[in-house]
Amino acid sequence: MKKLQADLIAPCGFNCALCAANQKKEGEKGYCSGCYVADGKEKAHCSKCAFNRCPVLKDNGYRFCYECDKFPCRKLELHDEKYIKCANASVIENLKYIKQHGVDAFFEVETIRWKCRKCGELICMPKNRCLHCNRLVPKKKENYE
Predict the structure, then answer these.
(1) Three-state SS at 9
(2) What's residue 66's pLDDT?
(3) From CA 34, how far away is CA 14, in angstroms rounded?
(4) Fewest CB atoms within 10 A around its CB: which of 67, 102, 112, 142?
């Protein structure tokens, strides 16, 4: 199983390790190493991402959106709605958890939450499917509390 790393958490709170592009093998077409992994292979959607280009984050040296005085901004709320519909996961809740408990605790919870019960690999969250054994995972609401 791919080990979750702090660099795989996007500024918006999305866990890039759960993305289909990150779960591909390095060098494979469409592979993405995540928002903060400096391999020079930034994907087009990353360069267009409002959170990677956010001047407030960049100008203040912020790592996560929760550090901003405007958290959660309207862009983040719209982004959150998308992920709630897609996989019953909230990037805003992710950020609140990281702020309160830290990245290491978040990784522990995420590893349990998104671990395939059949093969033990990480599930592809947006597809609600394990890309390793092809097990479909039903959408369900799971809070961190």
Answers:
(1) strand
(2) 95
(3) 10
(4) 112
